[in-house]
Design brief:
Elements: E1 8-14, E2 20-25, E3 34-36, E4 42-46, E5 55-58, E6 66-68, E7 72-75, E8 79-82, E9 92-96, E10 109-121
Antiparallel strand pairs: 1-2, 1-10, 2-4, 3-6, 4-5, 7-8, 8-9, 9-10
Length: about 120
């Protein structure tokens, strides 16, 4: 559903918490695979409804800003939505610090379950 869609923001609700994770990708998603290169991508987290506690982390390794793969949902390198089987029932999130400036969660690497996610395309008028 995201193929050929540029300028997208992904919001992920972590199951059993008030936490929201996500990221921004200015380039097109293509399920054909491969890494996307941009300096304008970032990931973020909100631990609760208080926006003062938000963490925003800009991309550091620009040739690893996002990854396209037909088996994954949105993949920002540090936040990956994936399915635990070969279906498109995306139900898991891998969250780890690899390519962005700072860690967006307290734990170095963790597999989480998602409650829901939404992807929006930003269109300039």
């Amino acid at each position: 559903m995201c193929d050929s869609k540029p300028n997208t923001v992904t919001f992920i609700k972590v199951r059993g918490s008030e936490e929201i994770l996500g990221g921004y990708n200015p380039l097109k998603w293509e399920s054909s695979g491969g890494w996307g290169k941009t300096k304008d991508s970032f990931v973020f987290s909100f631990k609760n409804k208080n926006t003062k506690n938000a963490i925003i982390s800009n991309i550091e390794i620009t040739d690893r800003a996002f990854h396209c793969d037909r088996l994954n949902g949105p993949d920002f390198g540090d936040i990956i939505i994936w399915a635990s089987s070969e279906t498109t029932n995306f139900n898991s999130i891998v969250c780890k610090k690899r390519y962005h400036e700072k860690r967006i969660r307290d734990v170095a690497e963790e597999v989480l379950f998602l409650e829901d996610y939404e992807l929006f395309q930003i269109i300039r008028r």
